[in-house]
Each structure stands twice: as structure tokens, then as C-alpha cells.
Design goal:
About 30% of the residues lie in helices and about 20% in strands. With about 350 residues, it is of the alpha+beta class. The protein has two domains: about 240 residues, Gnk2 domain, C-X8-C-X2-C motif (Killer Toxin P4, Chain A, 2-Layer Sandwich), CATH 3.30.430.20; about 100 residues, Killer Toxin P4, Chain A (2-Layer Sandwich). A hairpin with a 4-residue loop joins strand 6 and strand 7. Helix 5 runs antiparallel to helix 6. The longest helix is centred in the middle third of the chain and has 20 residues. The radius of gyration is 19 Å and the shape is elongated. Bound molecules: 2-acetamido-2-deoxy-beta-D-glucopyranose (7 copies). One 2-acetamido-2-deoxy-beta-D-glucopyranose binds next to strand 8. One of its GO terms (molecular function) is kinase activity.
């Protein structure tokens, strides 16, 4: 517990879920130790298939062949299998900095997890390992749709020192990347880049991405929503944030979290996935799968707190969530009972229901 107490001074992530959303889907969303965030048919509209059905067979075939076209090196896989009501549609999308082999590996793992975690559900969506890849399938058409839900967001709870200036830098960077991504072709709608906030001398790393089957206008509007939402509502003045939706992705941090960008061939400034010591960030985390899988945030190893953020902020939204657990923390009665408090003190990780 003392480790946790110390950690929570540095690590600010809390878990806030809109109440209506929880009640609707608490049994159907969660995370795993592979940092897999998933929603099983959020609105419970698509129904279930049975183990021996044509749908089950089609889904199985589709998922096992989804990434088999190794000529696809741009990280977007979309295909269908089956006829009429047994037809299954699937999309696999990797974050733009992920290499082709890693992408296929990510999707393969996501596939195994999602079918296990959403058994018999005709529709499901999940993001694997810090959104390295997204996998979704449904019996309805999902290609070329601008879909903004289900979604989640996370904020680094550290405030920017000069928030107005920092926000301006983030806004400029995000808008530049948004235009670049929206203008991308039907294989790739992605933008990544950096900007320097000369006030704090911090480099801001940004990434935006859409599924490339969107039109330019759809991609743009999905990202506009995300950028606006993070900056004006969900994570205002924060030094890091992400908004994750089926159709588009937006994230910025003050440390590098991208590893590979084929569009620039520049190695990322920091090849290490670990955040710089001065910029702790919440991550989606681990909880063992259970009847009510839980969204949660993980503890990173303690690190030097940044000078401008000596302590944790109080939560701005009341916490209401299923029982969460943390990476590195054994699930025990103590842990479980302290977790809500930790979450309150530790920052923000939200599921957006609207
Ligand atoms: C599908 O199965 C889930 C979990 O077993 C259940 O909660 C849900 O109500 C079912 N949906 C339908 C439409 O039957
Ligand atoms: C997959 O998406 C591409 C555009 O990105 C489109 O041309 C192709 O028809 C799609 N495939 C299916 C099966 O919808
Ligand atoms: C997720 O998949 C990995 C390997 O693909 C497996 O080890 C792990 O147990 C799975 N987790 C869940 C919750 O299904
Ligand atoms: C953002 O871009 C505008 C227009 O290019 C520029 O005037 C402004 O100074 C920039 N703001 C920041 C904080 O970089
Ligand atoms: C930022 O860096 C420049 C040059 O490296 C330095 O002159 C300046 O004092 C730094 N500003 C802050 C706020 O640290
Ligand atoms: C995309 O979806 C969002 C949310 O439903 C909506 O506000 C926006 O207008 C849509 N964009 C386009 C181009 O249809
Ligand atoms: C960040 O700013 C908000 C609003 O001004 C404030 O309530 C909160 O305590 C601040 N958090 C930190 C870590 O300073």
C-alpha cells in the first residue's frame, strides 16, 4: 500500500465512467492484461450466435484469413465472409507506426482475445496494447461508416504549466495532423508529428488516424470531434490525452509513444516505449477476465515527478465503475477495496457514451 501511496503521487489516472453507460454495458466491456480494451456489442442490438451456427463458422474463417494477404503492408484489413444473415464483416486496423509483421501479430492476438472475451456475440470491437491495433466485426455492414461509438478516452492528469500556450501548440499540431490524415488515400489515413512548446520546452508528440475506408470529410469530422472533445471537455489543459473511437484515433503526449513511421522513415526520437520520467501517463490495464470485466488503469514504475505537477489532482467527475484491478497488484481484498480510492486520486480514464 505504501508503494501505491507513493505511486499515486506521480501517477494520475482515474477511471470515470458515465453511469448510464456502465449500467448498459458493464458485463460487456473491459480490459485484459494485454491492455486489450473491448466492447461486446455495446447496445446489445446484434444478438448472439450459437457455437455450431453458420455465423460461427463464417466468423472463424474470416478472422483466420483476415491478415493472410501479406501484400497488405499498410495496416488495414477489411473483408467479409458468408451470405445474407450469416455474413460477417471485419476490420483490422493497426496504428500507423506499426510494422506489417507486428501488425499481423497484434491482430492475431486481438482475434484470440476478442472471441474469447465476447463469446457468441455477433458484434465486437477491441483495441490491443495501447491501440497498436483495433479489431472489429459484425453482421452488419461496418465498412465506410463514420462511427464514433463506442469510445473511450484517457487523460494524463498533469496540467500544462502554461495551459493556454500548451493547448495552442497541441491544437495546431492536431489540426495539422488531422488535415494530413483526412487527405490520405483508401489505404492509409494517418498523421504523426511533433511540435515544441517553447514555453515549457516540451516536445509534444501527436498522432491521428482514421480507418482509411472513410471519406475525407468523414475522417475530418470524426477527428474534429475528438480533438475538440479532448481539449474542451474531457482532458482540457492536460499534457497528454487520447480519444479512441471505431473510426478515428487521436492521441498526444509529451513523450514519444510511436515506434515506426513508414511515411517519414525517421526513427522516433525515443525508441523506448516507456514514457519519459517527467511525464507519467495512464495506460489501459489489466484485470483478469471476469463476469464484469473492468476498465482500469495500470501503475507504471515510480519515476521522478515532473516539477510542475507535484501532486495528484482531485477527480473532477464522480467515480462509478465495476471493480478494477491493477497491473502489478495482486487482486486481494485489500487491493480491491482500495482501488476506488486510488482511482479517485489517480487520474482519468473515461468511457464516453455520447
Ligand atoms: C447475448 O449474450 C449475452 C451474454 O451471454 C447476453 O447478455 C445478451 O442478452 C444476449 N443477447 C441477446 C440479444 O440475446
Ligand atoms: C476494403 O476497403 C477498401 C477501401 O479502403 C475498399 O476498396 C474495399 O472494397 C473494401 N473491401 C470490402 C470487402 O469492403
Ligand atoms: C489474450 O490472448 C493471449 C494470447 O493470445 C492469451 O495469453 C491471454 O490469456 C488472452 N487473454 C484473455 C483475457 O483472453
Ligand atoms: C498556431 O498557428 C497559428 C497559425 O499558424 C499561429 O498564429 C499561432 O501562433 C500558433 N500557435 C501556437 C501556440 O503555436
Ligand atoms: C528552453 O530552452 C532554451 C534553449 O535550450 C533555453 O534558452 C530556455 O531558457 C528554455 N526555456 C525554459 C522555459 O526552460
Ligand atoms: C460523423 O459522425 C459524427 C457523430 O455521429 C457526426 O457528428 C458527423 O457529422 C459525422 N460526419 C460526417 C461527415 O458524416
Ligand atoms: C489542474 O487544473 C485543474 C483546473 O484548474 C485543477 O482543478 C487541478 O487541481 C489541477 N491539477 C493539478 C495536478 O495541478
Amino acid at each position: 500500500m505504501s508503494l501505491l501511496s507513493i505511486s499515486l503521487l506521480w501517477f494520475l489516472c482515474c477511471l470515470i465512467i458515465t453511469t448510464t453507460f456502465i449500467f448498459k454495458t458493464s458485463a460487456d466491456l473491459g480490459t485484459t492484461s494485454q491492455r486489450f480494451f473491448y466492447f461486446c456489442d455495446q447496445n446489445n442490438e446484434r444478438g448472439n450466435y450459437t457455437a455450431k451456427s453458420n455465423y460461427a463458422r463464417n466468423l472463424n474463417t474470416l478472422l483466420s484469413t483476415l491478415t493472410s494477404n501479406t501484400r497488405i503492408d499498410y495496416g488495414f484489413y477489411n473483408s467479409s465472409h458468408g451470405e445474407n444473415k450469416d455474413k460477417v464483416n471485419a476490420i483490422g486496423l493497426c496504428r500507423g507506426d506499426i510494422k506489417p509483421e507486428e501488425c499481423r501479430g497484434c491482430l492475431d492476438q486481438a482475434k484470440a482475445n476478442i472471441t474469447q472475451l465476447c463469446p457468441n456475440r455477433k458484434e465486437a470491437i477491441g483495441w490491443y496494447q495501447d491501440e497498436k491495433c483495433m479489431l472489429r466485426y459484425s453482421d452488419r455492414t461496418i465498412f465506410g461508416l463514420n462511427e464514433t461509438e463506442p469510445a473511450y478516452y484517457m487523460c494524463n492528469m498533469n496540467n500544462a504549466t502554461d495551459a493556454d500556450k500548451f493547448n495552442g501548440v497541441v491544437k495546431n499540431l492536431s489540426d495539422k495532423l488531422r488535415r494530413k490524415a483526412a487527405a490520405g488515400d483508401s489505404r492509409r489515413k494517418y498523421g504523426a508529428g511533433t511540435a515544441v512548446d517553447d514555453q515549457s520546452n516540451k516536445t509534444v508528440y501527436g498522432v491521428v488516424q482514421c480507418t482509411p475506408d472513410l471519406s475525407e470529410a468523414e475522417c475530418d469530422s470524426c477527428l474534429v470531434e475528438s480533438i475538440k472533445g479532448l481539449s474542451s471537455h474531457y482532458c482540457n489543459d492536460k499534457i497528454g490525452a487520447r480519444m479512441v473511437r471505431p473510426s478515428c484515433y487521436h492521441r498526444y503526449e509529451t513523450y514519444s509513444f510511436l515506434f515506426y513511421d513508414p511515411s517519414t522513415h525517421h526513427p522516433s526520437p525515443s525508441p523506448s516505449p516507456s514514457p519519459s520520467p517527467s511525464s507519467p501517463s495512464p495506460f489501459p490495464a489489466p484485470s483478469s477476465p471476469k463476469a464484469t470485466p473492468s476498465p482500469s488503469s495500470s501503475l507504471l514504475p515510480p519515476s521522478v515527478p515532473s516539477a510542475e505537477s507535484p501532486s495528484s489532482p482531485p477527480p473532477s467527475v464522480p467515480l462509478s465503475s465495476p471493480t478494477p484491478s491493477f497491473e502489478g497488484v495482486k487482486t486481494s481484498s485489500t487491493t480491491v477495496t482500495t482501488v476506488p480510492l486510488l482511482l479517485l486520486l489517480m487520474g482519468s480514464f473515461l468511457f464516453v457514451s455520447t
